[in-house]
């Protein structure tokens, strides 16, 4: 066994621990009644997420990688995300909070034992480079972000708090020109990249302009004040139908406050900050704003080229700032702050062309449907991505303030229905050059 393998083992253990600390914070912030409550039909009870995280860890690390006996085979069906809709999970005979905590701790002990003995440097593709462990780390962190979104939807006094995000040294506005030509999209080399990020392939992108920052609350408020929600010219037919049916008048959690707007964030209501990115808007709202502004949403390929393409070398990098791992100075990630930061707050994370905050702050809607790349092969199971391919889902990129660094990178792809806005979604605009 090499030093690198031992380093990887230590890193996996540290990442598993970090994810569990976050899950614990999110589930200990509320009482048992709150843990089993259905805060929104769009979300599971928090206690379901917790035990589901343990169940996936059991399935992949304990049973599959470790070849060990099942801890609780009898509960697999309850925690299979494909068997029960989120709105129905509360009525299931779920583990109660104490049982769920005991279960995830028991699974974790066994998973760490499996990690100790796993040959990370050889053998099965599932285990090579610690992939299965990385997948489980990302899965737990993804559910932590989901649980954070549930926190945003719960009512009652606030239970989460954080310092405000850093203020920008200088405000970033305007757009940059991304030259036309091919670039490498996706990856073959990122060890913990998921199946839908693979394989790396060349994509030709025509020249385009992209905003240096995400659309702000101030800019979005101007769209509302200009009657944007009442003018079907800016909306697609499907978008307008949805706007009418759902009675949309602004981002989720906004209230009009005289001539301005306030927003409720994790139980606290305050005036919206004009130069912070707008959050909790759906795809239809994002596209309507873009059309009103004389622009459009970027395609997924445009977003990734703006984020990864290095004009000096022609290479695609792991992140906008280069290949170096995420540091706190690069991006607003990991729930360190409970809201997105103003454009210019993370200058060290900018791309070579001067596009800011592509990683962190808000998930950014793109205009692209979710599809497999040419040569896509499902791994390790079809239900991770492939069953979602098609025109029903739009791709989101870049992660939010609630996304952990382990669960986002320049190639990372998220997807959701165009009407969804309970996740931490915003957008930036682009236009043809
Ligand atoms: Fe899951």
TrEMBL record:
Domain DinB-like: 16-147
Protein family per UniProt: Belongs to the EgtB family.
Protein purpose: Catalyzes the oxidative sulfurization of hercynine (N-alpha,N-alpha,N-alpha-trimethyl-L-histidine) into hercynyl-gamma-L-glutamyl-L-cysteine sulfoxide, a step in the biosynthesis pathway of ergothioneine.
Record field: catalytic activity: gamma-L-glutamyl-L-cysteine + hercynine + O2 = gamma-L-glutamyl-hercynylcysteine S-oxide + H2O
List of residues binding Fe cation: 52, 139, 143
InterPro entries: CTDL_fold, DinB-like, DinB/YfiT-like, EgtB, EgtB_Actinobacteria, Sulfatase_Mod_Factor_Kinase, SUMF_dom, SUMF_sf
Residues the record lists as binding gamma-L-glutamyl-L-cysteine: 86-89, 416, 420
Spans through the membrane: none
Pfam assignment, any one: FGE-sulfatase
Keyword Oxidoreductase among UniProt keywords: yes
Name used for this protein in its record: Hercynine oxygenase
Superkingdom classification of source: Bacteria
The entry's keywords: Iron, Metal-binding, Monooxygenase, Oxidoreductase
Keyword Metal-binding: yes
Entries under HAMAP family matching the protein: EgtB
The Sulfatase-modifying factor enzyme-like domain, residue ranges: 173-431
E.C. numbers: 1.14.99.50
Involved pathway(s): Amino-acid biosynthesis; ergothioneine biosynthesis
Cofactor names: Fe(2+)
